[in-house]
Amino acid sequence: MTAADRDDSYARLRTEWLRTRAQLIDPDTSLPTLAAVLEDVRRLLAERPLVAVIYAELDSEAEAQNGWQAYDAAVQFFAEALRVLRRDGFLQKEDPIATLGVRSEAFAVFTAGRGEPLDRDGVAKLTGTLVTQLGKLLEQGGEQRLGFHHGFALLRRDPMLRHERSILRAVDEAVQMALVHRALEENELTVQLGQIIAEGRIQTLSQPVVRLSDRGRVGVEVFSRGPTGSPFESPLRLLALAERCGRLVELEQLFLRRALELVGRRLERGQKLFLNTTAVTLREHLPHAAFAAQVDQARLSRGDVVIDVSERLTQIPGGGAREAVARLKGAGFLVALDDMGGGRTSLQPLAELAPDFLKFDIALVRDIHRSRIKRGLLETLLEFSGKIGSRVVAEGIETSAELETVQEMGVELGQGHHLGRPTPVAETGGVL
Amino acid sequence: MLYDGGAMGKRILVVDDEEDILHFLELVLGDKGYEVTTAANGHEALARAQADGPDLILLDIMMPHMDGWEVLKLLRVDEATANLPVAMLSARTEAQDRVQGLQEGAVDYICKPFALRDLLGKIDSIFEAAGATGRTD
């Protein structure tokens, strides 16, 4: 073997090692994946006859709501919290903490406890303690409320079974328990949702959409959510549950009625009302006469009503979003394509849809002054919007640096905490 | 060679499965005063990145066997190369790829065919940004 061959062999080995490592260790949390801790758990099981598997899984709605970057941070925070529990003695020093897979939001912790061998009650109690402590850590640290579900199982040393499979089955059992918890919670929430819809106990908020050049108000976007302090305060959660119960359109009809009543009547002439919608409602409710009649009754011009359609919806094949958009435009409404540049932006369908507004995703705007690649993406989208004649709104502007950057780049309109926070619309009151 | 303060001592690793691109960039970037090394596939790229310690990697996306995304991921996994600025090169213009660049930690995204002046300008500002803030985003 020549020196060059040796170098090449080494380089190939190293590449293979990196590839394997990339699958076994999560780069963001530096935690090993389940596959990588099987040996550690086997060793633990060899010393102690009973090992507890405790499983925790973050609620994934937060990713859809706040974007993958914020969710990455939440997952890292959660992983850190688990490490803190171990450091502070709630777990033993050598107890394995694993993520279920690279970039997963689910984790498994293995422990045999400190003294006495664990039994089922012991594991239940231990899990309860860990969950309470985790809750405290999350409250102290996180900016947003991190919800999570948990489960546990007892792993027993059994010479009849392969240890790897025993471990995986125990993890599976713990996952199943978490699913059951979720389902029970869901039932309870379903009942509450029914009451909220029946009693109309939703909140309507509005946020200004502003012309960047002179901060003039061009319109407002309306958001709806459930009662403050309830599990339904998060709009995504509320909508997700309503969808699972088959009451999504009903809920959104309530949102839209309230938005038109409270906000629609108080807009100045020419100001636009931006309304949000989901795929189902877009298809089944908005293009129909009933909605148009409500708009007319609220004495709004249809050309002042903008339906915000998330770009994601238009990419579902056979989803009917494009047809619905065409019908809405045919009826005289305006359409905005929302969440642009935040995920899977595809330029070609955009030209077919010909939206009146393009709204750029909050994740694109975040720290745009520090990211060349984001500015490049925004430049491309701006150029494209010019070509198809769409007006542009940058969403989620939270700092003056972000504002200056997008303004300099030629963005016409903006929305975000820096320009005006979403505020509850009062039952009575003057012009917005 | 004329003194070119900006380029002096800066090492660039160019990764592309097309030999023409490698030769071309080796020539023009070398002319500008950069020290250029090349790799024709992902596995060579990883080896070069570790051995040569480049200051910037220009990484083609569409390569057989291991594409630019996987190479970027593996660069980020290895502590030795985790913080190297990497700019993706690609003939694809889908915005989706730019977003993926963001997610995987690329510092810029350069479309092929590129005007040489634009490429040099981007390289300049990447180095400037890295120097000024110590960050590479």
What would your notes on this structure say?
The complex is a heterodimer of chains A (432) and B (137). Chain A is α/β, with parallel strands linked by helices. Chain A contains 16 helices and 13 strands. Chain A has an 8-stranded mixed β-barrel, surrounded by 5 helices. A 4-stranded antiparallel β-sheet of chain A has the order 2-3-1-4, with helices on both faces. In chain A, strand 2 and strand 3 (106-111) form a beta hairpin. Mean pLDDT of chain A is 88; it is low at 428-432. Chain B has a single domain (11-132), classed as 3-Layer(aba) Sandwich (Rossmann fold), CATH 3.40.50. Chain B is built from 5 helices and 5 strands. Chain B has helices spanning 19-31, 42-52, 68-77, 95-104, 116-133; strands at residues 11-15, 35-39, 56-60, 86-90, 108-111. Chain B starts with 10 loop residues before the first strand and ends with a helix. The model of chain B has no long low-confidence stretch (mean pLDDT 86). Chain A binds chain B through residues 7, 11-12, 14-15, 18-19, 21-22, 25, 27, 68, 341-347, 370-374, 376-377, 380-381, and chain B through 42-44, 46-47, 50, 66, 70, 73-74, 76-78, 93-96, 98-99, 101-103, 106-109, 122, 125-126, 129, 135, 137.
Task: Write a brief caption for the model.
The complex is a heterodimer of chains A (432) and B (137). Chain A is an alpha/beta fold and 432 residues long.
